[in-house]
Amino acid sequence: MCFFDQHRFACGDWRWGHFRQHCNREYRTGETCGMKLIMQTVPVSHKCKLCDKIDTKQRRRMAEEDRISRWKREGSKFRASIDRSYDMIKSLDREIYDLRNERMRKSQAI
After folding, report:
1. Pairing of strands 36-43, 14-21
2. Is the pTM of this model over 0.70?
3. Per DSSP, which regions of the chain are E strands?
4. Structure confidence by residue, pLDDT tens digits, 17-48
5. Are 52 and 32 in contact (CB under 8 A)?
């Protein structure tokens, strides 16, 4: 039951911070007992890396949708580009789904 800082991100996720204090079970210098307790929670103003990746991919997806709608308004001369953008959207949807599953898995692994 050694004590660590906890960093809480704006998205609600958290991660372990620096080691702060030994418990009475562990007497060896530089070693911890394996049980982590929170000494203090440090609020962090930005999102975690996974949420940043999800946001980036969602912005790319929205940009592809905007391109498709613009190309459709201009006529049927961009058919290959539209098909390529649909494939890109499918790929981004799969990546977003995987990242969200990874975020859920990490939050449930406590």
Report:
1. unpaired
2. yes
3. 2-8, 14-21, 36-43
4. 888 887 776 666 667 777 888 889 999 999 99
5. no
